[in-house]
Amino acid sequence: MKLKPSEIAAFLRKPTDTAPAVLIYGPDEGLVRERTRMLAKAIVGDINDPFRVATLELSDIKDDPARLHDEAEALSMIGGKRVVLISGATDALGGPMGTFLEESEAVGGAPVSLVIVSAGDLGPRSSLRKAFESAKLSPTIPCYSDDAGSLESMILDELAVAGLAAEQDALDFLVAHLGADRQISRREIEKLVLYMGDEPGENSNGTRNERRPVRLEDVRACIGDVAALALDNVVRAVADGDVPTLDKDLARLFEEGEQPVMVLRAVMRHFQRLHRAAGLVAKGETASQAIAAMRPPVFFKERASFERQLRLWPSTKIGAALERLIRAEVQCKTTGLPAEAICGRECIALAAAARAARA
User: Fold this and answer.
1) How many other CB atoms are there within 10 angstroms of residue 92's CB atom?
2) Closest CA to 239 of 312, 142, 322
3) C-beta separation of 290 from 281 below 8 A
4) What is the distance between the alpha carbons of residues 55 and 88, in angstroms, rounded to a whole number?
5) Where are the alpha helices (DSSP H) in 45-134?
6) pLDDT at residue 247 is higher than 70
C-alpha cells in the first residue's frame, strides 16, 4: 500500500492499528532513520524498552524464516503493543516478508506487534517493495532527499522553535548547502542554534523582531568549515573544469570520511540543475533569466559561476555527464572496486571535459 505524501506525517504520529508491517526506504538514510524512530516511538514511547522492542537481523530470518512470525506474535511481558525492527533490509527479505504479509492480512492484520522494515533505495522492481505495495494494510514510506520546499520548511520550523528567523540570503544559503541527508541537515541547524545563543537581536534595518534574525554571516561562521561546503567546492570544481582544486578538495573530503556515492550524488544534483537551466535557455530565455527561475535559487555569490558553467555545458553534454555519474554510482555499489577511485576518476574526467571546453 502506497501512502500519499500528505498522509505520511499523520501515519507516523498515529499508525493504524491493523497494519502488520511498514516499509520505510529511500536514498536519504537520515530521513529513513528519523522516520523509523518516530514511528517506533509512536507505538512504544521508549524505543530502548527491551520488553516492547525487538531487533531482527536479515541473517536471523534467513536462517529461520519462522522467526519473523514468532517475534511479530510475541506478547510483551508488561503489556502494550510491541515493535519489531528490521534494518538494512534488501530483496533477500522479499520472499519471507511477502509470506508474512499475506498470512497477516488474511486474518485482518497483526495488532500484537508492528514490524518496521527500513531499507536503502529500492527500485520499482524490488521484490521487497512489491510485497508491500501489493499489500492492502501494510504501507510503504519513501524517503527521498529534501526538495527546496520541504527543506526550507524544516529549516524555518527548527529555527522558529529556538526563537530564530532566517533572513532571506541566509535561508537561501542554507537551502543551497543542506538537504542531501535529513539527519545531517538537522545537526547543522542545531549547531546554528547553539551558535546563535539566546541574546536578543535586531533586523539588519535596525527594527526589533520578536524572533531573533539569523544573518548570512552567522550561517557562514557556523557551517563555513563543514563538509557541506567542501563538497560544494568539489562540485563547483567539476563543473568549472578546475582540476587542481578538485584534486585537492576531493582528497580532503575522503580524508574526512565523506562517502564517494554522496559526492557523486552531489555532482549529479548540480548537473541536473544545469540541465534545467539549459532547457530554459533552449526555449529562448537568457542565461540570467534561466538562473533567476531556478528553485531553490542559485546563491547570489555563485550566479556568475553558474552562468559560466552553462556556457561550458550544453544540454547534450550534461545528459552524457549524468549518464556517467549514474554508471559510476552503480559501479561503486556493485563491482567491489575501490569506490573512492571510481568517484575520483569520473569527477576528474568531467572536470577535464569542462577545461577543454573552456580552452
Assistant:
1) 14
2) 312
3) yes
4) 12
5) 58-63, 66-73, 94-106, 127-133
6) yes
Q: 8, 126 in Cβ contact below 8 A?
A: no
Residue 109 CA to residue 163 CA, distance in Å, equals 44
Distance CA 171, CA 158 (A): 12
Q: Is the dihedral of CA 126, 131, 134, 136 positive or negative?
A: negative
Nine cell digits for residue 98: 511477502
Q: Report yes or no: 203 and 209 within 8 Å, Cβ to Cβ.
A: yes
**Rounded to 10 degrees, what is the CA torsion of 299, 301, 305, 306?**
20
What does pTM read for this prediction? 0.54
Distance CA 109, CA 139 (A): 12
**Rounded Cα distance, 11 and 339, in Å:** 37
Which amino acid belongs to residue 258? Answer: E
Cis, bond preceding 297 (omega within 30 deg of 0): no
Cα 179–182–183 angle (5° rounding)?
A: 130
Cα–Cα distance measured from residue 195 to residue 189, given in angstroms and rounded to the nearest whole number: 10
pLDDT of residue 16: 86
How far, in Å, CA of 352 to CA of 191, rounded?
37
What's the rounded Cα separation, in Å, for the pair 214 and 159? 9
Query: C-alpha cell of 197?
Result: 545563543
- What CA dihedral angle connects 260, 236, 308 and 296, to 10 degrees? 90
pLDDT at 148: 62
CA distance linking residue 13 with residue 94, whole number of Å: 27
Give ∠ CA 153-154-155 in degrees, rounded to 5. 90
Cell 557551517 maps to which residue?
Answer: 223
Which positions ≥6 away from 123 have C-beta within 8 Å? 129
Q: How far apart are CA 233 and CA 246, in angstroms?
A: 8
**Percent residues over pLDDT 70 in the chain:** 91
